[in-house]
Amino acid sequence: MKKKFLTLCAIVSISAMSIACGDTATEGETAAAELSGVETDIDFDDEADAAEAEVSEEADDAASTDGSGEEGKYSVFTDASDAEVEAYAQKVVDAVLAKDWDSVGDMISYPIGSKEDNNLCNNKEEFVEYAKNTGFDDSYFKSLSAWKVSDLWGNWQGGCIDDGNIWFSGVNDEGFKILTLFDLRMGDATITD
User: Fold this and answer.
1) Which end of the chain is more exposed for a tag (fewer CB within 10 A), N or C?
2) CA-to-CA distance for 94 and 67, rounded, in angstroms?
3) Angle CA(89)–CA(73)–CA(171) in degrees, nearest 5?
4) How confident is the model at residue 61 (pLDDT cuts 50, 70, 90)?
5) pTM of structure
6) Is pLDDT at 69 greater than 50 in this prediction?
7) Can you state the angle between helices 138-145 and 82-97, rounded to 10 degrees?
8) Greatest CA separation found in the chain?
9) 5 to each of 9, 41, 50, how far by Cα in Å?
């Protein structure tokens, strides 16, 4: 039984390789039979059709919503198109570099920061006050000014700008929101009365 199973595995593998390389199923069958030395009752044409159908189905599943036939670069964290994700990232970068704290404040998911670090911002007003009065280290701006949208990447947590200095993701039905901005981190935020 084990030998038949291994033979079947070898035949399927050779058949798949033959299909991928453009060989006919008969050549794959001949090679498999030579390899195993065992007669088989497998119909390679049916198997080849099944393999092609499976590959086609996988390609359909991987197609993105923008109709390009390719899975979106950022699909691990959003259904939005690559262009939408990159446009939002550039909007964030432009607002931060311009120190347009009102606009940046509208893009943040609150609370952000932590009581322990004395930078907890529960809303836009607290963030704007923090950004204007306490501010952020100049090294953040220097690094961010060298960032390009082609450097954007993402994982299950969201989109990553400037090697993790800024993170954003979709938040409920609000669209994209900033989760981390320099030393203000969403994961650190705690709400206590």
Assistant:
1) C
2) 29
3) 50
4) very low
5) 0.60
6) no
7) 140
8) 82
9) 6, 13, 19
